[in-house]
Model the fold of this input.
Amino acid sequence: MQVCKKCLLNDNMPSVRINEDGLCNLCSTQYESRGIVNNNEEEISSLIKANREEKYQIILAYSGGKDSTYSLKMIKERYDASILAVTFDNGFLSDTCLKNIRTVTDNLDVDSIIIKYPAKKIIRAFKYIEDGKFFPRQSMERASAICNMCIMLIKNLIYYEAIIRRIPIICFGWTPGQVMTSKPLIKLNYTMVLKGFENIKNIITSRFGARYEKYFLDDAFMRENEANMPYLYYPFVKNNYKEDSVIEEIKEIGWIPPQNTDGNSSNCLLNSYANQCHVSKFGYHPYAFEISNLIREGYLTREEGLTKIGNVANPCSYKMICEQFEKITG
Ligand SMILES: [Zn+2]
Done:
């Protein structure tokens, strides 16, 4: 296995090739920073203004982790808007994370809801997809199979809550390494949304039946609401990102770093298990791509990146999840 000397990607990833100078195909080509394309401040403010009568103007997918906490603080300070923070509890959020959600939303004076699906149901689905065989290669280079599915469940939930509550702006606190767009504000296209979830919805409902259908957006529901599709807003695309200063800033609103997560999660214990499955099967870290983006964009040094991907799993959390997963069969 060869590792890029600039960004840390290795050639176990199908799309990565290392040249004779020791650089990967992403680092050896002229790298163009995604930078800032639009200034959407006016557009966001006018969306908020036009929807002043609604109970909420912004819904934030709030994982309780450092990045979405920072996003929540940022949008709260920047916009005169009523915000709803929605957390999808996959059953494996750390106790510190759940405490952080309460403290932070209290301190920021933001309404918060936590939605959790039954543990057996969700573990069955995670077990079924964990080896990655149902996902395209490209998705496996971006995140583990479990993370991919969890993110899809979150998106289905958040889009649904936004549409049903007529909230015009959906906010995700992805890092600049996770967002593959230079546009911070994008209107949802309902056919593209449905197409994006079609595969996983079919896989899960054909294996486990109609009782899982409610966890995915329904075609008729989306068609009925075609005229009220919300906008996606990625605050990090437009802002400088430094992990240390993000953590320092959110500590001021009561956020505490959890001790039992792995090097790439600040909320979820399942991530240790998901990472370990992924590394064992594919031979590269599921966060390598995101971290390599952060290194190329200058947000992380290569050494910082190597430290992050060196910490694949928290051993206690990994063991706890293995035991829980083994108990659930069928
Ligand atoms: Zn590279």
User: Anything to note?
Assistant: The two ends are 37 Å apart (CA to CA). The mean pLDDT is 92.
